[in-house]
């Protein structure tokens, strides 16, 4: 079994430095911390979490609230959070978030975890206050609609990012652009809806309530909403749609295929996350490239710093527009 001393020799640092890293304490440089983490990974060192818990009163457990595990975007974030947290000696568990069970979860978490990751959910003020009083940081990947007293969040600048999508659609001749949205008041997708409205205004294009379809964040619901849109004769009101999630974009594309609606000839469709499935559809789907690995790593670093008692600040990342077949008439 690998020892702490062997990790120190491998990293070329003192045993004390290894202890600082394992216990998530300040006092070592980022370069030294990285050397120790690399040595831990290479030697497959397994620290005694039971002993550390007794000494530090920490559980080395982090919880992630997920909305829907069938969403490849959220599953990817969960995977990145788990891998990065493991590098700092934390175990990650997840709970599917249901607003009606929030009080139950609040009592369950007390004394059992060191931190909570949100995937953009807006927790009730009393829940956030309970976690704050217990010294449990709350870090969100994706900005909640109502951030409240969350410790910090990481996300992209949705208004600026969606402006890139809208400008591209305008360059393809689209001036009547709709949105397939998730209208839940507590879901992070609502932040995207608000940002889309701002982006359309900034680009000088009209946008109102009749330009929104409700897809509930799911492939099946978005498909049903699009089929209904086609069935009642609304096709033609818009020449393009942006979906607030890639699952909903795929649902729209499926509805168009089943209805004999050519994409992008009769209707252009764009997503906003860049999950793998958007490269496997016919046509491939134009998307914003959400930097999941970078955002997840940043979220874990913020969590570790917050647990240490260090000040933390929210971060916004840039995103690229990946133009593919679903919006580009050139193929």
Which structural traits does this protein have?
alpha/beta, 331 residues, transcription, Rossmann fold, 12 helices, four-stranded parallel sheet, 15% strand, six-stranded parallel sheet
Summarize the structure.
The chain has 331 residues and is an alpha/beta fold. It is built from twelve helices and twelve strands.
Plain-language structure description:
- This protein folds into 3 domains: 44 residues, lambda repressor-like DNA-binding domains (434 Repressor (Amino-terminal Domain), Orthogonal Bundle), CATH 1.10.260.40; 125 residues, 3-Layer(aba) Sandwich (Rossmann fold), CATH 3.40.50; 133 residues, Response regulator (Rossmann fold, 3-Layer(aba) Sandwich).
- 43% of the residues lie in helices and 15% in strands.
- The chain has 12 helices and 12 strands.
- Strands 2-1-3-4-5-11 form a 6-stranded parallel beta sheet.
- Strand 1, helix 5 and strand 2 form a beta-alpha-beta unit.
- The longest helix is centred in the first third of the chain and has 16 residues.
- The termini are far apart.
- The mean pLDDT is 90.
- This is LacI family transcriptional regulator.
- GO terms for molecular function: DNA-binding transcription factor activity; transcription cis-regulatory region binding.
- InterPro entries: HTH_LacI (IPR000843), LacI/GalR-like_sensor (IPR046335), Lambda_DNA-bd_dom_sf (IPR010982), Peripla_BP_I (IPR028082).
């Amino acid at each position: 079994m690998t020892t702490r001393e062997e990790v120190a020799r491998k990293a070329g640092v003192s045993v004390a430095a290894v202890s600082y890293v394992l216990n998530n304490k300040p006092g070592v440089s980022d370069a030294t911390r990285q050397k120790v983490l690399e040595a831990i990974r290479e030697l497959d060192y397994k620290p005694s979490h039971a002993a550390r818990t007794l000494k530090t009163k920490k559980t080395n457990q982090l919880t992630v609230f997920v909305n829907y595990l069938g969403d490849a975007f959220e599953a990817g974030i969960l995977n990145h959070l788990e891998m990065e947290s493991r590098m700092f000696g934390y175990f990650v568990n997840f709970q599917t978030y249901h607003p009606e069970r929030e009080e139950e979860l609040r009592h369950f978490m007390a004394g059992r975890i060191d931190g909570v990751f949100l995937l953009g959910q807006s927790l009730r003020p009393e829940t956030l206050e309970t976690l704050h009083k217990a010294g449990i940081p709350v870090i969100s990947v994706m900005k909640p609609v109502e951030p409240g007293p969350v410790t910090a969040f990481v996300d992209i600048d949705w208004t600026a990012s969606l402006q890139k999508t809208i400008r591209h659609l305008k360059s393809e001749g689209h001036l009547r652009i709709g949105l397939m949205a998730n209208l839940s008041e507590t879901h992070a997708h609502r932040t995207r809806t608000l940002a889309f409205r701002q982006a359309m205004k900034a680009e000088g294009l009209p946008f109102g309530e009749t330009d929104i379809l409700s897809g509930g964040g799911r492939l099946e619901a978005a498909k049903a909403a699009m089929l209904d849109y086609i069935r009642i004769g609304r096709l033609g009101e818009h020449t393009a749609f942006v979906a607030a999630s890639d699952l909903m974009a795929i649902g729209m594309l499926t509805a168009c295929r089943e209805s004999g609606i050519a994409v992008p000839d009769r209707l252009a469709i764009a997503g906003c996350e860049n999950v793998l499935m958007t490269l496997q559809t016919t046509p491939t789907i134009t998307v914003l490239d959400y930097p999941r690995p970078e955002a997840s790593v940043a979220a874990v670093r913020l969590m570790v710093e917050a647990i240490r008692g260090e000040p933390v600040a929210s971060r916004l990342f840039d995103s690229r527009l990946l133009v593919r077949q679903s919006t580009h008439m050139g193929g």
